[in-house]
Design goal:
The chain contains three helices and four strands, in the order αββββαα. The strands form two sheets. The protein has a two-stranded antiparallel ribbon. A two-stranded antiparallel ribbon has the order 3-4. Strand 3 and strand 4 form a beta hairpin. Helix 2 packs parallel to helix 3.
Length: about 110
Amino acid sequence: MVKQTRARVLRGDTHAEGKPVSVFEPTTEVIRRGKAKQPTEFDKMIKVQEAESQIITSYEVFAKRPSDSELLVPAVEVHCERLGRVPELVAADAGFYSAQGEKTATWGS
């Protein structure tokens, strides 16, 4: 803890390895993932979207963590806007699924 304090206070290094969450830094967000190996993370949530051949077509950094299920339809809309077509196949984490999202995202098929 003394090493981190010296790095943060004396050298201005706010990214010291293993640093605890600071209630004085409003940008820190606690993300509960529920995974055995890493149940809690402290950072920002990002969404990376890719198309065929792993080409990144969009990314977004969220100030506040949204519900994953709210991200599917906007992701398909960005794909359509940038590539001019509805994707043939969409793959995402299970949290992205919602019946309404699936219904909305299949309008082109």
